[in-house]
Recover the amino acids of this structure.
Protein backbone atom coordinates (compact mmCIF):
# COMPACT_ATOMS: atom_id res chain seq x y z
CA UNK A 1 0.00 0.00 0.00
CA UNK A 2 1.09 3.53 -0.74
CA UNK A 3 0.05 6.58 1.29
CA UNK A 4 0.24 9.99 -0.39
CA UNK A 5 -0.33 13.13 1.66
CA UNK A 6 -2.15 15.19 -0.97
CA UNK A 7 -2.71 18.17 1.33
CA UNK A 8 -0.83 18.82 4.57
CA UNK A 9 -2.02 22.32 5.47
CA UNK A 10 -4.32 23.67 8.14
CA UNK A 11 -7.38 25.95 7.85
CA UNK A 12 -5.26 28.98 6.89
CA UNK A 13 -4.31 29.26 3.19
CA UNK A 14 -0.70 28.36 2.41
CA UNK A 15 0.78 28.55 -1.11
CA UNK A 16 2.80 25.38 -0.50
CA UNK A 17 0.24 23.27 1.31
CA UNK A 18 -3.25 22.30 0.20
CA UNK A 19 -6.00 21.49 2.67
CA UNK A 20 -6.18 18.16 4.51
CA UNK A 21 -6.45 15.17 2.18
CA UNK A 22 -4.70 11.80 2.02
CA UNK A 23 -4.74 9.16 -0.71
CA UNK A 24 -4.28 5.47 0.00
CA UNK A 25 -3.52 3.22 -2.96
CA UNK A 26 -4.24 -0.42 -2.14
CA UNK A 27 -4.43 -3.40 -4.50
CA UNK A 28 -5.38 -1.19 -7.45
CA UNK A 29 -7.93 0.82 -5.48
CA UNK A 30 -7.71 4.58 -4.86
CA UNK A 31 -9.18 5.66 -1.53
CA UNK A 32 -9.41 9.38 -0.73
CA UNK A 33 -9.57 10.54 2.88
CA UNK A 34 -10.96 14.07 3.33
CA UNK A 35 -11.40 16.78 0.72
CA UNK A 36 -9.61 19.91 1.81
CA UNK A 37 -8.72 22.96 -0.25
CA UNK A 38 -7.20 22.02 -3.63
CA UNK A 39 -7.83 18.29 -3.39
CA UNK A 40 -8.53 17.76 -7.11
CA UNK A 41 -5.42 19.73 -8.08
CA UNK A 42 -3.31 17.45 -5.91
CA UNK A 43 -5.09 14.37 -7.24
CA UNK A 44 -4.31 15.58 -10.76
CA UNK A 45 -0.65 15.80 -9.78
CA UNK A 46 -0.63 12.03 -9.15
CA UNK A 47 -2.63 11.23 -12.28
CA UNK A 48 -6.05 10.98 -10.65
CA UNK A 49 -7.61 14.32 -11.55
CA UNK A 50 -11.12 12.97 -12.04
CA UNK A 51 -13.36 11.48 -9.32
CA UNK A 52 -13.97 8.55 -11.68
CA UNK A 53 -10.53 7.26 -10.65
CA UNK A 54 -11.55 7.12 -6.99
CA UNK A 55 -13.10 3.94 -5.62
CA UNK A 56 -14.37 5.66 -2.47
CA UNK A 57 -14.19 9.00 -0.66
CA UNK A 58 -13.96 8.92 3.14
CA UNK A 59 -14.56 11.86 5.47
CA UNK A 60 -13.10 11.84 8.98
CA UNK A 61 -15.33 14.68 10.17
CA UNK A 62 -17.20 17.69 8.84
CA UNK A 63 -14.97 20.61 9.82
CA UNK A 64 -14.68 23.03 6.91
CA UNK A 65 -10.95 22.61 6.33
CA UNK A 66 -11.45 18.89 5.71
CA UNK A 67 -14.41 19.40 3.35
CA UNK A 68 -13.66 22.70 1.58
CA UNK A 69 -13.52 21.13 -1.90
CA UNK A 70 -16.12 18.44 -1.41
CA UNK A 71 -18.41 20.43 -3.72
CA UNK A 72 -15.68 20.35 -6.39
CA UNK A 73 -15.61 16.56 -6.19
CA UNK A 74 -19.41 16.43 -6.51
CA UNK A 75 -19.53 18.81 -9.49
CA UNK A 76 -16.57 17.29 -11.33
CA UNK A 77 -17.95 13.79 -10.86
CA UNK A 78 -21.31 14.94 -12.22
CA UNK A 79 -20.05 16.70 -15.35
CA UNK A 80 -17.53 14.01 -16.34
CA UNK A 81 -19.48 10.81 -15.68
CA UNK A 82 -22.50 9.15 -17.31
CA UNK A 83 -25.90 10.12 -15.98
CA UNK A 84 -26.87 8.92 -12.51
CA UNK A 85 -23.34 8.03 -11.42
CA UNK A 86 -23.13 9.14 -7.79
CA UNK A 87 -19.99 10.12 -5.93
CA UNK A 88 -19.42 7.32 -3.41
CA UNK A 89 -18.77 8.66 0.08
CA UNK A 90 -18.31 7.12 3.52
CA UNK A 91 -18.36 9.37 6.55
CA UNK A 92 -19.57 9.97 10.10
CA UNK A 93 -23.13 10.62 11.19
CA UNK A 94 -24.22 13.86 9.52
CA UNK A 95 -22.48 13.17 6.21
CA UNK A 96 -25.70 12.51 4.31
CA UNK A 97 -27.20 15.84 5.39
CA UNK A 98 -23.92 17.58 4.59
CA UNK A 99 -23.91 16.03 1.10
CA UNK A 100 -27.54 17.04 0.51
CA UNK A 101 -26.78 20.62 1.55
CA UNK A 102 -23.73 20.69 -0.70
CA UNK A 103 -25.75 19.56 -3.71
CA UNK A 104 -28.43 22.13 -2.87
CA UNK A 105 -25.81 24.89 -2.75
CA UNK A 106 -24.82 24.02 -6.32
CA UNK A 107 -28.36 24.62 -7.58
CA UNK A 108 -27.64 27.68 -9.72
CA UNK A 109 -24.68 26.07 -11.48
CA UNK A 110 -26.60 22.83 -11.99
CA UNK A 111 -29.47 24.73 -13.60
CA UNK A 112 -27.16 26.61 -15.97
CA UNK A 113 -25.34 23.48 -17.06
CA UNK A 114 -28.47 21.39 -17.57
CA UNK A 115 -29.95 24.18 -19.68
CA UNK A 116 -26.82 24.26 -21.83
CA UNK A 117 -25.93 20.55 -22.13
CA UNK A 118 -28.75 18.40 -23.39
CA UNK A 119 -27.00 15.19 -22.32
CA UNK A 120 -27.01 16.30 -18.68
CA UNK A 121 -30.36 14.81 -17.79
CA UNK A 122 -30.02 14.36 -14.03
CA UNK A 123 -28.71 16.39 -11.13
CA UNK A 124 -25.51 15.52 -9.26
CA UNK A 125 -25.87 12.80 -6.67
CA UNK A 126 -23.90 11.43 -3.75
CA UNK A 127 -24.22 7.87 -2.40
CA UNK A 128 -23.46 8.17 1.31
CA UNK A 129 -22.71 5.46 3.84
CA UNK A 130 -22.64 6.74 7.41
CA UNK A 131 -20.48 4.82 9.87
CA UNK A 132 -19.56 5.02 13.54
CA UNK A 133 -17.52 1.99 14.64
CA UNK A 134 -16.56 -1.22 12.86
CA UNK A 135 -16.52 -2.10 9.18
CA UNK A 136 -16.67 0.97 6.92
CA UNK A 137 -15.81 -0.46 3.49
CA UNK A 138 -14.87 -3.77 1.94
CA UNK A 139 -14.12 -4.47 -1.70
CA UNK A 140 -11.97 -7.29 -2.98
CA UNK A 141 -8.86 -7.59 -0.84
CA UNK A 142 -9.24 -4.15 0.75
CA UNK A 143 -10.94 -3.68 4.11
CA UNK A 144 -11.49 -0.36 5.91
CA UNK A 145 -12.62 -0.21 9.51
CA UNK A 146 -13.37 2.86 11.61
CA UNK A 147 -13.68 3.98 15.21
CA UNK A 148 -14.86 7.15 16.95
CA UNK A 149 -12.07 9.53 17.96
CA UNK A 150 -11.85 12.44 20.41
CA UNK A 151 -12.33 15.79 18.66
CA UNK A 152 -15.00 17.25 20.93
CA UNK A 153 -17.23 19.16 20.34
CA UNK A 154 -17.12 17.34 16.98
CA UNK A 155 -18.73 14.31 18.59
CA UNK A 156 -19.07 12.30 15.37
CA UNK A 157 -15.40 12.39 14.27
CA UNK A 158 -13.93 9.05 13.21
CA UNK A 159 -10.57 7.59 12.26
CA UNK A 160 -9.97 4.83 9.71
CA UNK A 161 -7.76 1.76 9.37
CA UNK A 162 -7.09 0.40 5.86
CA UNK A 163 -5.97 -3.22 5.60
CA UNK A 164 -4.71 -4.98 2.46
CA UNK A 165 -2.04 -7.54 1.61
CA UNK A 166 -1.09 -7.98 5.24
CA UNK A 167 -0.43 -4.27 5.77
CA UNK A 168 -2.35 -1.65 7.76
CA UNK A 169 -2.57 2.13 7.39
CA UNK A 170 -4.34 4.41 9.89
CA UNK A 171 -5.81 7.77 8.90
CA UNK A 172 -6.61 9.29 12.27
CA UNK A 173 -7.98 12.69 11.25
CA UNK A 174 -8.24 15.33 13.97
CA UNK A 175 -8.15 13.77 17.43
CA UNK A 176 -6.71 13.74 20.88
CA UNK A 177 -5.12 10.50 22.08
CA UNK A 178 -7.85 8.04 23.10
CA UNK A 179 -8.47 4.34 23.56
CA UNK A 180 -10.22 3.96 20.21
CA UNK A 181 -7.29 5.58 18.40
CA UNK A 182 -4.98 3.11 20.15
CA UNK A 183 -7.19 0.32 18.89
CA UNK A 184 -6.94 1.56 15.31
CA UNK A 185 -3.16 1.96 15.52
CA UNK A 186 -2.35 -1.41 17.07
CA UNK A 187 0.23 -3.09 14.84
CA UNK A 188 -0.20 -0.58 12.01
CA UNK A 189 2.53 -0.09 9.43
CA UNK A 190 1.71 3.59 8.81
CA UNK A 191 -0.12 6.02 11.09
CA UNK A 192 -1.06 9.46 9.68
CA UNK A 193 -1.81 12.04 12.37
CA UNK A 194 -2.80 15.71 12.22
CA UNK A 195 -0.74 17.54 14.83
CA UNK A 196 -0.11 20.76 16.73
CA UNK A 197 3.05 22.27 18.20
CA UNK A 198 1.99 22.97 21.78
CA UNK A 199 4.97 25.22 22.49
CA UNK A 200 4.29 27.46 19.49
CA UNK A 201 0.54 27.67 20.02
CA UNK A 202 0.93 28.57 23.69
CA UNK A 203 3.08 31.52 22.63
CA UNK A 204 0.20 32.94 20.58
CA UNK A 205 -2.13 35.29 22.48
CA UNK A 206 -5.19 34.61 20.30
CA UNK A 207 -7.87 32.65 22.24
CA UNK A 208 -8.96 30.83 19.10
CA UNK A 209 -5.47 29.43 18.69
CA UNK A 210 -5.34 28.35 22.33
CA UNK A 211 -8.61 26.50 21.81
CA UNK A 212 -7.06 24.10 19.28
CA UNK A 213 -4.87 22.53 21.95
CA UNK A 214 -7.70 20.64 23.61
CA UNK A 215 -8.87 18.69 20.56
CA UNK A 216 -5.73 17.86 18.56
CA UNK A 217 -2.72 15.64 19.21
CA UNK A 218 0.61 17.30 19.86
CA UNK A 219 3.77 15.99 18.19
CA UNK A 220 4.72 14.31 21.46
CA UNK A 221 1.27 12.72 21.87
CA UNK A 222 1.31 11.41 18.31
CA UNK A 223 4.71 9.86 19.00
CA UNK A 224 3.42 8.23 22.18
CA UNK A 225 0.36 6.86 20.38
CA UNK A 226 2.58 5.39 17.66
CA UNK A 227 4.87 3.82 20.26
CA UNK A 228 1.99 2.23 22.18
CA UNK A 229 0.65 0.74 18.97
CA UNK A 230 3.93 -0.66 17.73
CA UNK A 231 3.58 1.45 14.57
CA UNK A 232 6.39 1.29 12.01
CA UNK A 233 6.05 4.76 10.41
CA UNK A 234 4.44 7.89 11.89
CA UNK A 235 3.42 10.53 9.35
CA UNK A 236 2.85 14.06 10.67
CA UNK A 237 0.46 16.30 8.72
CA UNK A 238 -1.99 19.25 9.09
CA UNK A 239 0.58 21.36 10.93
CA UNK A 240 -0.75 23.87 13.47
CA UNK A 241 0.61 26.48 13.40
CA UNK A 242 1.89 26.36 9.85
CA UNK A 243 5.25 24.64 9.53
CA UNK A 244 7.99 27.19 8.79
CA UNK A 245 10.54 26.08 6.23
CA UNK A 246 13.69 24.80 7.85
CA UNK A 247 11.98 23.68 11.07
CA UNK A 248 11.05 20.17 9.97
CA UNK A 249 13.61 18.56 12.25
CA UNK A 250 12.11 20.31 15.27
CA UNK A 251 8.73 18.71 14.63
CA UNK A 252 10.32 15.32 13.97
CA UNK A 253 12.40 15.50 17.15
CA UNK A 254 9.39 16.26 19.33
CA UNK A 255 7.59 13.14 18.10
CA UNK A 256 10.81 11.16 18.25
CA UNK A 257 11.16 11.73 21.98
CA UNK A 258 8.37 9.19 22.46
CA UNK A 259 8.62 7.01 19.34
CA UNK A 260 11.40 4.68 18.24
CA UNK A 261 10.19 4.24 14.65
CA UNK A 262 10.46 6.41 11.57
CA UNK A 263 8.86 9.88 11.68
CA UNK A 264 7.92 11.53 8.38
CA UNK A 265 7.25 15.27 8.41
CA UNK A 266 5.02 15.31 5.37
CA UNK A 267 4.81 17.82 2.55
CA UNK A 268 2.12 17.84 -0.12
CA UNK A 269 2.55 14.76 -2.34
CA UNK A 270 4.88 12.96 0.08
CA UNK A 271 4.59 9.22 -0.60
CA UNK A 272 5.11 6.50 2.03
CA UNK A 273 4.97 2.77 1.36
CA UNK A 274 3.48 0.54 4.04
Amino acid sequence: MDVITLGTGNPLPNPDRAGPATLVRAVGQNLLFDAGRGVLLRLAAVGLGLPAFLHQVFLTHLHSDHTTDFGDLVTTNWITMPADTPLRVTGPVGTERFADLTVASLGADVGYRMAHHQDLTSQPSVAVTEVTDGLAYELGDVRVSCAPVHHFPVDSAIGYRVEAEGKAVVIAGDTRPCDSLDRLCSGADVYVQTIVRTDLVKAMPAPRMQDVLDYHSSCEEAGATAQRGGVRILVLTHFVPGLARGTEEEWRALAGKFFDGDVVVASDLTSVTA
Q: What stands out?
A: The mean pLDDT is 97. The chain is about 30% helix and 30% strand. Residues 70-80 form the longest helix (11 residues). The CA atoms of residues 193 and 236 lie 5 Å apart.
